[in-house]
Automatic annotation (TrEMBL):
HAMAP family: UbiG. It comes from the Bacteria. S-adenosyl-L-methionine binds at R50, G81, D102, L143. O-methyltransferase that catalyzes the 2 O-methylation steps in the ubiquinone biosynthetic pathway. Pfam families: Methyltransf_23. The keyword Transferase applies. It comes from Altererythrobacter arenosus. It catalyses: a 3-demethylubiquinol + S-adenosyl-L-methionine = a ubiquinol + S-adenosyl-L-homocysteine + H(+); a 3-(all-trans-polyprenyl)benzene-1,2-diol + S-adenosyl-L-methionine = a 2-methoxy-6-(all-trans-polyprenyl)phenol + S-adenosyl-L-homocysteine + H(+). This is Ubiquinone biosynthesis O-methyltransferase. One of its GO terms (biological process) is methylation. Pathway: Cofactor biosynthesis; ubiquinone biosynthesis. GO terms for molecular function: 2-polyprenyl-6-hydroxyphenol methylase activity; 3-demethylubiquinol 3-O-methyltransferase activity. Belongs to the methyltransferase superfamily. UbiG/COQ3 family. Keywords: Methyltransferase, S-adenosyl-L-methionine, Transferase, Ubiquinone biosynthesis. The gene is ubiG.
Length: 252
């Protein structure tokens, strides 16, 4: 599962964080991104679970009304590696002023068109997050992205720089375990649950590794939650981190 990637061939002060072949892979999928039964079906299935975590993190961090329909009114949000906007659009509906950034111009084109058709005002930009002068945001999300990043420490520093004082960061990524290698890479790609070539298991990041990388970027990682599946319940948040996990982080 991947929501594409966060940068492309745009140069930053220290080089790129994203491999060009990753951008090309997801660009080829752009036109089918919003097809819930197409090659990105796995994202459509996991998105409600990720959004549940994000909503809980928002309410916990800002102490808002858990019943409020638009808890992000008056706040800004940045989704890095936004793909065609599967997270940007719900964040806008929660009230945020939303910016989405992606390496792929094709993805950004699809995202912009879909948002316009839905009557949603979202700013979309193509490029490397470290090279774009975007300012800071109350909420920064980057979901299923870091496993595609070549320079993970630089990428996380760029995310940290994008956070406003008192801001909230949410990340999700596959864990590097034998189970994820078997199920998320070998089995999922073989049966077509995710497009072939989406994942390189060696680039997966464990929670311990992510915590260390975030600390180096000046961020403190919260308690990760697993995203897992079981019969009768489907995909859901759990304590099982063996496949995917999602986590929040705050400035130290």
């Amino acid at each position: 599962m991947s929501d594409a990637i966060s940068g492309g061939e745009t140069k930053s002060s220290g080089g790129t964080t994203i491999r060009p072949e990753e951008a090309a892979h997801f660009s080829a999928l752009a036109r089918d991104w919003w097809d819930a039964k197409g090659p990105m079906a796995s994202l459509h299935q996991v998105n409600p679970v990720r959004l549940q975590f994000i909503r809980e993190a928002i309410d916990l961090h800002w102490g808002g009304d858990v019943c409020a329909a638009r808890p992000l009114v008056g706040k800004s949000a940045l989704d890095v590696g936004c793909g065609a906007g599967l997270v940007c659009e719900p964040l806008r509906r929660l009230g945020a002023e939303v910016t989405g950034v992606d390496a792929s111009a094709e993805n950004i084109g699809v995202a912009s068109a879909h948002a316009e058709a839905a009557g949603l005002d979202i700013r979309y930009m193509t490029g490397e997050i470290g090279a774009l002068d975007l300012g800071t945001f109350d909420l920064v999300t980057s979901l299923e992205v870091i496993e595609h990043v070549a320079d993970k420490p630089r990428f996380l520093r760029d995310l940290a720089t994008s956070l406003a004082p008192g801001g909230l960061l949410v990340l999700s990524t596959p864990n590097r375990t034998p189970a994820s290698k078997l199920l998320l890479v070998e089995a999922a790609e073989r049966i077509g649950y995710v497009p072939r070539g989406t994942h390189d298991w060696n680039d997966f990041v464990t929670p311990g590794e992510l915590g260390e990388l975030l600390a180096e970027a000046g961020l403190a990682m919260g308690e990760p939650r697993g995203i897992t599946w079981r019969p009768g319940k489907g995909l859901h948040l759990s304590d099982d981190l063996s496949l995917n996990y999602i986590v929040s982080a705050l400035v130290n």
